[in-house]
Amino acid sequence: MIPEGLDRSISTVIAVASAALAWWAHQRELTKEKKRIYDEQKKKYADRELKEYAAARDFGHIQRDLAQLKTNTDYLMREGDQRLDDIEKRLATVTGTVDVLKELARQRQAG
User: Fold this and answer.
1) How much is the pLDDT for 31?
2) pTM value?
């Protein structure tokens, strides 16, 4: 036989233990949820930083590529100008030679 007061004490202990166990399980679930949210936010932050770094790196590559294209274009323009100047000089020489030959041909026909 269980004394009358003891039965109530055991029921109270069981109720308090059940409440403590439920509170502990709830706290454990909250901790898991907080960790999941933290990990998710950390991953989002890392992904965002990685994308930002990749964009900055790609932009730097594009800037360097454009600078190289400008340098190459300037070189090609100078090279083209030099070649055109050389062609103009040769054309002037050929034109002068043709004029001299025409004059000599006229003189032979006249003379």
Assistant:
1) 97
2) 0.52
